[in-house]
User: Fold this.
Amino acid sequence: MSESKSKKQSTREQFIEHAKKGEILLNQCTKCNNIMLETVYYCDKCFSNSFRHVSYTGKGRVVTYTIQSVAPEGFEDVSSYAWVIFKLDDCDINVSGFLPGISTPLDLPLGSKIQVIDFHVKHGLILQKY
Assistant:
């Protein structure tokens, strides 16, 4: 296994471990300190590819979402849910996640408080309202 592939796998494992603690693992550019999602490979401000991991609370507010009221194949374990994009409280980063139990827009007004509570292999970041 190559060193870069091994590093990516360990980063994924770190991301999952942080999510299980209700945190989001992000990248901070070591050249200009810009904060980006952990999945970004080049800084969108200075184009550097040198990062350090930083952890932020997984809390934020709903920016937008899509409600899935009929589960597609492979998602039969939940009846209805929302794919949510939320802005983190502690920095200007949008993150997406899976929020079960959402059936109508009344269940999730824009601006609702959301927090990461877990990571699931199939669903990704698992969210809950608080």
Remarks:
- Helices lie at 3-20.
- The CA atoms of residues 25 and 55 lie 5 Å apart.
